[in-house]
Amino acid sequence: MDALLAPFHPIIVHTPLALLVFSLAFELVGLATDSEWWRKAAFLLLLIGTVGAVLAVLSGTGAEHIANRTQRIDHDAIEAHQDMGKLTMWIALGAVAARLVAFGMRQGRTLISGLALLLQGAAVVTVVTAGLRGGNLVYQHGAGVKVNGAYVSPRPPGERPQGES
């Protein structure tokens, strides 16, 4: 499945990047205005952004093979981006889980909601970091870039990427 999604990685990654950031903004507005509507909208954005993070990780696995093997992009740079993407996915899943637990609670709801908010904030930090690292892969290393239908490679054919033996 990751190979099928690989060509769509540059499109898919924008979903968690945008929606996780906006989910936090909506949550903060909901808290500041004590508006249930904003908080429900924030949860929906968090949920869709988290699904997007899962799909981004899956599509990134296939894209990694192209960047690493076909293009010989620096392996350490790919791993740093991939690790941050996976961290985003797990933190966002934790935020969704905490929100679902908080919805069903009467006592301790404030504590769990606070944990969910912290996880949501952490997911925003990690998704922005993953996005910056992904942008560096494209704009500094040429990952996924094609010229005349062929992937570009920053290294001569015999040279191995750094971090690969």
Output the keywords.
165 residues
Please sum up the structure shown.
By secondary structure, the protein is an all-alpha fold. The chain has helices at 2-5, 9-12, 14-33, 36-70, 75-103, 109-139, and strands at residues 146-147, 150-151.
Description:
The protein is mostly helical. It has one domain (2-151). It is built from 6 helices and 2 strands. It has a two-stranded antiparallel sheet with strand order 1-2. β1 and β2 form a beta hairpin. α5 (75-103) runs antiparallel to α6 (109-139). The longest helix is centred in the N-terminal third of the chain and has 35 residues, at 36-70. It starts with a helix and ends in a 14-residue tail after the last strand.
